[in-house]
Amino acid sequence: MVRDENFVTSYSLFATIVTSVIGVSVFSYASDLCDIVGNDGWIVIIISALINFALIYIMYLIIRLNNYDEFYKIVNDNFGRYLAKIIVLSFVIYNIVYISNGLRVFTEETKLYLLEKTPMEFLIIISIIVANYLIRGEVDTLVKFNEVVFWVSFIPVIFVLLFAFYQGDFTNLLPVLQNKPSNYITATWVTINRFKGIEIIFLVLPFMKKKNKTSKILFNSLFFIGIFYILVVILSVAMFSTEQVKLMLWPGITMIKSINIPGTFIERWEGIIMAIWVLFFFTTFTNLYYFSADILKDMLHIEDIKISSLLIIPFVYIIALYPENVAEVIDVGRNLMPILFIINMVVIPIILLLISKFRLSKRKQ
């Protein structure tokens, strides 16, 4: 696609960031936080949101300093051809491991709540096929999909969550600040990966129409994500208490199933919410899948992204099926993902920013 086709609006960027970051893992966020900091999980979310706003702003500066070039070109220009291939390959591996892990979580949740008798292998294959179909439409189609899914997903879910305010016991959130500082640091480290997806701006920002509004949109996106996470975690604790949430795999889903909407005319409305959340999973999965295929296309000098997307399929399928059970999937998310996050979302962008600034100052001289 030609780089001067600026079709991404402010809302497009906002919707793409939000739908790339928030996925089905939000359902287990409360459980992970309660294990470490009890009812103070909302504090960790605020810390994580601030850290990730700093990271996404660094990424924005990198893109701006490099004339809004595509990601592979930025890395190649700053690190050189050989080192660039290693760095972008690290991004691709991280994305593939992340979406594969998320795909396994998604299929486990789908089997548990929606399609109990459907083989997991079939669900994984269908998910990959759907993602590949969306990728064939190029970036503009992907962005339009994000715009639609944002409204379809969030309005019903937020509407349902509002009823939890009347049914929850908010004394479960007391007392606050009862943990050691080390606990907050540990919780932030373990769950920092919940904001994975912010790097999608490397894909869509070059197509931005009004680039001068970018920083405001980035802040609004991270603010919305943080508030939504806080809402889900606080309501989960209010509904069940900290000790109960610790025992749940996906307290977010259990909370939604427990909410009673008086006078509702829809039977088993929680199934509708789960069906809507399937769409939300696909935005996270497809956006990062596309980004990986786009990087791979440039790295291997492949003309069509449809070919590079096919190369990723066997890796996603194998990695998604590799864990023997949900416990192993959770272990990967808690132990491996934070390390990959630090390498690819913190260390590499900071070094890339410093080199970009150095090269710019040299050109000015």
TrEMBL record:
GO terms of biological process kind: spore germination
Full protein name: Spore gernimation protein
InterPro entries: Spore_GerAB, SQR/QFR_C/D
Keywords: Germination, Membrane, Transmembrane, Transmembrane helix, Transport
GO cellular component terms given for this protein: membrane
Alphabetical list of Pfam families matching this protein: Spore_permease
Membrane topology: Multi-pass membrane protein
Family: Belongs to the amino acid-polyamine-organocation (APC) superfamily. Spore germination protein (SGP) (TC 2.A.3.9) family.
Localisation per UniProt entry: Membrane
Keyword Flavoprotein (UniProt): no
